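Before a colleague's protein record goes any further, I have to sign it off. What it holds is a sequence and that sequence's fold in token form. Would you go through it and say whether the fold makes sense for this chain? The record follows directly below this note.
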Amino acid sequence: MSTNKLPSQSEDFPAWYVEVVKRAELAEHGPAKGSMIIKPHGYAIWEHTQRALDDRFKATGHENLYFPLLIPMSLLGKEADHVEGFAPQVAVVTHGGGQELEEPLAIRPSSESIIWSTYKRWIQSYRDLPLLYNQWCNVMRWEMRTRLFLRTSEFLWQEGHTAHATSDEAVEEALRMLEVYREVAEDVLAIPVIKGRKSAGERFPGAVETYCIEGLMRDTKALQCGTSHFLGQNFAKAYDVTFLNADGQQEHAWATSWGFSARMVGGTIMAHGDDAGLRLPPAVAPIQVVIVPISRSEEERASVIGVAERIRSELAAQGVRVRVDDREQHRPGYKFAEWELKGVPVRVELGPRDVAADRVVVAERTGGDKAEVPVAELIAGIRARLEGIQRALYAEALAYREANTHEITSYAAFASGVAEQGGFWRGAWCGDAACEAEIAQRTKATIRFLPIEPTDPGTTCMHCGKPGVDVAHWARAY
């Protein structure tokens, strides 16, 4: 671990982010452009996030399955909007086994095409519906400018793909899964998010409606944290997926898709980190409590290690992810700095005098002074302590978002404000795609979301002066 001080967030947030990912041993660049090697500490954060999502998927009736990575280009080409939207990002395999392939194969940018061509065989009647399936996989979207976790050519995610007998059922499903995403973002990752609807220009290719959750990072930029799409019958029509409905009529199936990716590891870093490094929510922290024994002799070491192991065992029995850092090659100060950088929520220091007094010294990563705590009190209160840290991180992030959300009083105020202050800017929009594009081109801000239900702003568009038809939240974003 480097002992050099991290760049400060206020002076150079991108450099801070890069250094935290590197020094906290979360990930590093792979040998192929745009690829990423996720190291154990980073992957464990994703595993805990994945488990929280998967448990909720199954609780809402979904099953996991798996579809192939390689998609014949003829399948991908059947859905014009989908291909048009993804075309610049699609990676294509043209050779295999030393020979040119008869048909090129796309490396999946998403799986709608291969899934809906398969659903054609699986769906015959309304009795076959709904299909509620999810897959955990990697996808490939060729990126010119990459940043670890946030935007890489290959990334890990889950993608749900469901088929329904009615439009209402499909919309209900898309919104149900959006709520699952909100719950995981807020209750697990401690990132406050707002649920919304994308403008037509920001929709997923081929979707009728794209719903999203959006969060605000500590550099005042927005991050799309998850999306859920109502696909209507677009993919069913493209792949001729029909069923015999309850009235005996042939009808195209109604569809949703929804995805949540490992970019949220990056989101967790940026929503909570400080100038000392990570501050991980206990719900996803690979190590929730680290115990650092301190001794000056072999006799002291044996005594301190013995007590540390007893504490570890009792915490682990409560389901706490706990580690004793008994490495002899590093001094205590080095260990304190390392675990602070890696975001461990609770650090416990234990020396000979603490053993004699049946106490420990406790430091929480969210701040505050060290405190001497009886061993029994530490063990009995550890769950409440971790829950308190989880709540504190969420509350701090929520307060930050609220302090950086602004009402648009004029286009000039918005244009200067979004450049100088960042944050969310809320105001009336006319609904015209040309107006939206002009604002984005001039300010580098995009509509992050509209309300789930269209909302009359009661005033004119902040840019063109036409009657407002919706309330838009704008921001510069990742």
About this structure: Residues 375-403 form the longest helix (29 residues). The two ends are 28 Å apart (CA to CA).
